[in-house]
Amino acid sequence: MAGLYLHIPFCKQACHYCDFHFSTSLGLKSQLVEAIVRELELRRDYLPTDTVLETVYFGGGTPSLLKAAELDQILSAIHRHFAVAPGAEITLEANPDDLSAAKLHELRQAGVNRLSIGLQSFYEPHLRLMNRAHTAEESTTAVRRAQDAGFENISIDLIYGVPAPGHHIWEADLANAFALDVPHVSAYALTIEPGTAFGHRLQKGTFRAAPDEFVATQFEMLLAAMRAHGYEQYEISNFCQPGRESRHNGNYWRGVPYLGLGPSAHSYDGRNRQFTLANNPQYVAAVLERGEVPVTLDELTATDRANEYLLTTLRTARGCDLAHLRTQLGFDVQAAHAAYLAELQANGWARIQNEVLTLTDAGKLLADHITLELFQPPAVAA
Questions:
Q1: What is the pLDDT of residues 181-196, one digit of tens each?
Q2: What are the strands, taking DSSP E only, across the chain?
């Protein structure tokens, strides 16, 4: 089994926190769809010929900006070039303001069976602060409308750590989310990235990020609320009702190969990674005019593969299989970092059981730091 990711790099407007590749000019949209269809043909051999796609994921950007004909054009090409498993998970990211009854009918007719809806908040001032295109009312209406249209497999995105005088807004956001009774919730801390509107404002001193302690408290509130409502935290930012995890994202964390299409998309064949050029006009010209896909190859060393395994598995509830890391990837983390592992356990940040290392709730707050400390350093050339 493998996955297919398609990057649709268009948005109505730029969210102030977003550093993904996108354009607010839709002039190239139809040509870019043609280029993705052509790229499917050019790169169908990236995955083994007997590959069966278990998941297809339309990300962005805002894939819900695709017209019905454009979505059909891409999905028809996918079925033409790949075997798609019966019951494959076909996800499309959508903004609430795009999800009219007619749009939802089009998506159902096309074969989309899972929606990932970018709500971010139910609080109007926070939506305006983040420059979201939808209203607080549309946050609720879009999900209810999708459910009425027959979409049962729905994920919603929330953002916490937005500067505020207290935690009551986040409490209300969580309560509103639980009232929708969706099977999956992704929750991310607001991160101020260089080059974004927030990044520029932070540099100028016209925006102040929430203190780390404020963000940590909201993460702890998130964990407690999810647990109380029966959701499982199967990855640091992802929660689901029992058995309802995202199959596509879960495959990323398990190291399953996938092919990424479109500008800025990543691909992974189990050994190396490829990165497609993040430039819409240049991507379209290369694919449609020259029949070339502008990709950069990132050849992973044995150390890279070991560290990637650490990075991805430590974020999950399954944890990091230290025996697999040692026998299959050649890195004995217990021998290399015995003292640090003992410190993690003594501080209540991690546990090791049956040679599986997992982070506790307290450890998840420090996940990035812990992972870096456990990384295998690159080999020094003789």
A1: 999 999 999 999 999 9
A2: 2-8, 52-60, 83-94, 114-120, 154-160, 184-189, 232-235, 238-240, 258-261, 266-268, 272-276, 295-299, 320-321, 350-353, 356-359
The DSSP annotation for 207-229 comes to: --PPPHHHHHHHHHHHHHHHHHT
Sheet with strand 238-240: strands edge to edge: 232-235, 238-240, 184-189, 154-160, 114-120, 83-94, 52-60, 2-8, 258-261, 266-268, 272-276, 295-299
User: pTM here?
Assistant: 0.94
Mark 81-92 as b/e (b = at least 16 C-beta within 10 Å). Answer: bbebeeebbbbb
Does the N-terminal peptide bond of residue 61 adopt cis geometry, omega within 30 degrees of 0? yes
Element (H, E) at 362: helix 361-364
3-state helix, strand, coil in the chain (%, to 5): 45, 20, 35
- In this structure, of 19-23, 131-135, 233-237, 323-327, the range with the lowest mean pLDDT score is 19-23
- SS3 category, 64: helix
Are 219 and 230 in contact by the 8 Å Cβ rule? The answer is: no
Here the tokens at position 141 are 């209406």
288 touches 31 (CB < 8 A): yes
Give the separation between CA 238 and CA 223, rounded to whole angstroms: 10
Determine the Cα–Cα distance for residues 223 and 317; give it in Å rounded to an integer.
13
C-beta of residue 262 within 8 angstroms of C-beta of residue 62: no
Per-residue pLDDT of 22-71, as tens digits, reads 999 999 999 999 999 999 999 999 999 889 999 999 999 999 999 999 99
SS3 360: coil
Cα R_g (the chain), whole angstroms: 21
Provide the residue count of the chain.
Answer: 382
CA distance 188 to 246: 16
Q: What order do you get walking across the sheet with 350-353 strand by strand?
A: 320-321, 356-359, 350-353
Cβ neighbors of 39 (< 8 A, separation 6 or more) are: 261, 262, 287, 293
- Identify the DSSP state of 287: I
